[in-house]
Amino acid sequence: MEAKLLGPLVDVTISKVISVTTEQLNLAVGFKQELKKFHVMLRTLEGVLQDAEEKKVTSHSGLQPWLDELGNIVDEADDVVDEIAYEHLRYKVAQMWEKVSYFFTLSNPLAFRLKIANRIKNLNLELDDLNKRATGLGLQYRLASKHPEHIETQQIDSSIGDPSKIVGRENKVLEVVQSLIDSSNDQPLLVVSMVGMGGIGKTTVAKLVLEMLQAVAENVSVDESQHIVVQKLKEHLREKKYLLVLDDVWNEDWQKWESLRSCLLGIGKNVGNRVLVTTRSENVASTMGTLLEHRHHLEKLTNEDCWSIIKKRAFGSSSFPLELEGIGMDIASKCRGLALVANIIGGSLCNNRKKDDWLSIKDNSEVWGSIEEANGVLRVLQLSFNRLPTPALKQCFAFCSIFPKDFVMAKEMLIQLWMAEGFLQPFSERYMEMEDIGDRYFNALSSYSLFQDAERDSYGSIIACKMHDLVHDLAKFVSKSQTLILEDGSGRNIPTNIQHLNVISGKGMAAARFGDATKKLHTLFSQVDVFHSMSMNLRKVRVLSFCGANIDELPAFLGKMKHLRFLDVSGTRIKELPRFITKLYHLQTFRFLYCWEINRPLEGIWDLVNLRHIYFNQWNLMPAGIGKLTCLKTLQLFVVAQQKGHQIEELGCLSQLKGKLEIRNLDMVRDKEEAMGARLIEKDAIQELQLVFGEEYNGSEDRCKHDEDILEGLQRHSNLKGLIVENYCGKSWPAWMSKIEISMLDRVNFLKNLVFMSLYQCPWLERIPSLSLKSEAKVEIKNCKNLKSIACWFLQKLIIVDCEELVEVGVGPVAMKSLKEVHIDGCGKLENLLMISKVQSLEKLELRRCSELRMIGDDARFASTCLQELNIDGCGSCGTLKSIGESSSTATCLKRLSIIGCNGLTSLPSLHGLSSLQTLSIEGCDGLRSLPSGLPSCTALEELDISNCHDLISIPDDLRRSWSIPNPACLARLKRLTIGGFSTELKEFPDLGFIGSHLQYMTLIAWGEPRECLLDQIQHLTALRYLVIRDFDGLEALPNWFGNLSSLRTLFILHCKSLKHMEAIRCLSKLEVLCINGCPELKERCASGSGSEWDYISHIPHIEIENRIIQFHRDPIEIPSRVHQGDDNEQLPARATGLRRFICCRN
């Protein structure tokens, strides 16, 4: 074993063994003296090992064998004390059932005592020999120094993030963005490359580019065949122009790239698709066909930039000693401009103000002198590893090498794995939960910048992270003698000292030669059925994960794995949980999620007395008697039943529960007193609580009173962050929901920490009192049919859906400054929304299906100056929306305004002052008689939809005047336009000649008489790619100038009843989709091969006429995302959705 990790490994194991032997000393019947001696010998060697670490005598020729032998002995010692502890647990379980009266009375106790005594005696002899040899190596006993109890960390939001992302890269980000959005390049697939050495920041720049382009990132796994990956990309990218980021590319094989490129070209025929590549190799950029002008080289950061990163990582926003400024600059100059190195070095000095520590890094010439070499960066990164403050922390980091590169490590599971391996021992005599130690270690590794790319849940807590590729290389380097990942093509002789094995591929498994390699395994991850592939000795295994593996049963010998602490069979095809699992007394974590073929729960689970975390998501797998598992911390689902062992009182003894808890079938709880037996108010570590009552709603007073009593009895602790209530049939809310108790010390608000609350399907709830939540809270209320009023004091987002009786929504004074989003949908009796006129912080308002809504705000004014989005859909008589643009000071931030299906709307206020407006939609408002003035002032407008307003008879003067001005600024940016479907009294039509050259998507709907002349106004729109024309009844032939639309790719012709001639279409060489519907004259004329117009359209790859596919090509192509057919604004013709599916996917 390598000395760099053996020291920490032995140190961790020795500490664990000493701790356990201390606990088990009183249980050592028959071998107490040997165990005492064993304890003393381990203490001695712990001091000797400390001397070896401090002297760093790793170059001594005899030290490495000595360390290897020590590692083997300590590993065996760990097994011995673990087996003693196992027997104690077995006794404890038997004693619970009154089967024994004294220790070691099971399974021939005399033989067990003799066996253990001999093993410990032999270990003592070996340890004594090692101790004597240590003297010859120049090692002396030192009093082992205590490792720090407090590990310095920064706030995670600053430490696990990447503060270097805005240091020295601003101009480069802009350059890459400019290459990607270059409109002069009309290639179907443009490749832009970023080239730079590892750790220089290519991935960070790529992420910033995505953020700047406001791209929606969708990760697609590449651990599969190219065919599967391309299929996934098709699902994500069809009908879209896409930017695909390929990070850290190494392929220099031109043929492989061409194969992928042809597949990407097949995803969409439209031009403008982009691929952004990051690579360390110039040859890769050339292979992928990146032109020189689109090849960006990331230069090294300046020394000042590196110092800025180091300083931020080390001290955050706090001040730092001035005496460190010069030292820090010297260190920064040694980073050679690499952002990753600066990040890691800064993280290793987190909150460290000791000058000597800074100097020790600066003066390490051996490391800094090699940074330009092949593994130079790795050596520098090892500085951070060496400076990790405890051996256990080093071991936790090294363990992460068992995951493949770019693997998303779930924080909760990672800590449970560390715990199972024995890395999370208390720092001192002061007791500390292993999970809390693991949380501290996770935060420390994040502070040291060894973890990155944090993912957070809705409460802001980190739930997952990754490691940078070079950091992963470091983890592999320090643990290469311990850890192995088997993938395709990795078959080889497996070293006999491997402790952690991850079998990802069955091919790799088949090619591997194990021999005795499994004898020392502590960890086995496998996605294949290893039991049928080889003979395995898993006696020492602590962690066994078959998540997603193709196995259908668990072999019986697993029940004899005395050391097993982590078992995951999630996503397998096993048909039962065998009873022998309950003999795994050391088991701490048991996961059996998504095991759909298991139909009955595990019996006797109460025997797993050490179980701390259990995961399952099927109601029928809820084990009985779970309340006996008093160590349990994670129980995400509890299903109440009336049988013994399933009542809610089982939760009462589980005082350590934390995280998320869902309690179902609360209608099975008898009364308030029984509900109080769950003792939720004492469970201060539960973060999210979901309370689900039965789905039967009989409306009886008994059910109503029952649910009110039960919910009152389920009062939970004020630390709760999320509360979800479903199927509650009470009429009122429990008192504790709005109660603020006053004690001698403080006011206790039971909702003060709540950031999310959801009420779903509470049919008899009539009102919700004032909710004093956190100012950033989100509240969802759905399907509460009888709810009449709600009042909110503290919240950020409010969603109300299908509350048919709702008449009042109120907010308190604090909410006026905190509420940012309001969504109200399907509240048919809501007549006004007066609260809107008081909310000063509102950014988004969405109202749908509120048929009686007549007023939004007091006097229809908005108090918010930061409103960005207003969507109103199907809201009856919204006749007084005067505040949308009446005062430019209150609407300058508005980016989207959409008013759809509001038939009572007769007019709209002016749009003057809406300088930020990008999208304007006014659709299906039959009562609207005039368009609003001020449209020419909307200089940022990109999408405009004014359609199917059948009473519209008037065009404002300012819009009419703009017709005569070529390309006015008002619509210069317009990309999408839908217009038409107005009153026949509107005789004039806006001259579309003033529309800018960016227009690509257009839907034109005729009205009035004559209709056919309308088309003449679009002949100059040569950039049009998608065109829909509808309801041109008098049109008999497409005009000759139709061939001018040279960019047209998709054409829909709908309900043009007199259209007969298509000759003008033959010039459209780029046209790929033609869909004709509601044009009876063309059905026979365009018949394939025989129709008089067929020759004019036969060159088009995809043709559908009257809902029949006439011609198709198998290559996927793009069609418009919105095609208006009728007054109901369907997205596609009735059966054209079949065409959409057909032409966007390969069969």
UniProtKB/TrEMBL annotation:
Segments forming domain R13L1/DRL21-like LRR repeat region: 648-783, 1011-1079
All residue ranges annotated as the Disease resistance N-terminal domain in the record: 10-92
Domain NB-ARC: start-end pairs: 211-316
GO molecular function: ADP binding; ATP binding
UniProt keyword Disulfide bond present: no
Protein name in the entry: Disease resistance protein RGA3
Entry coiled-coil feature ranges: 113-140
Residue span(s) of domain Disease resistance protein winged helix: 402-475
Source organism: Rubroshorea leprosula
Transmembrane portions of the chain: none
One Gene Ontology term from the biological process aspect of the record: defense response
Record has NAD as a keyword: no
Source taxon at top rank: Eukaryota
Keyword vocabulary terms for this entry: ATP-binding, Coiled coil, Leucine-rich repeat, Nucleotide-binding, Plant defense, Repeat
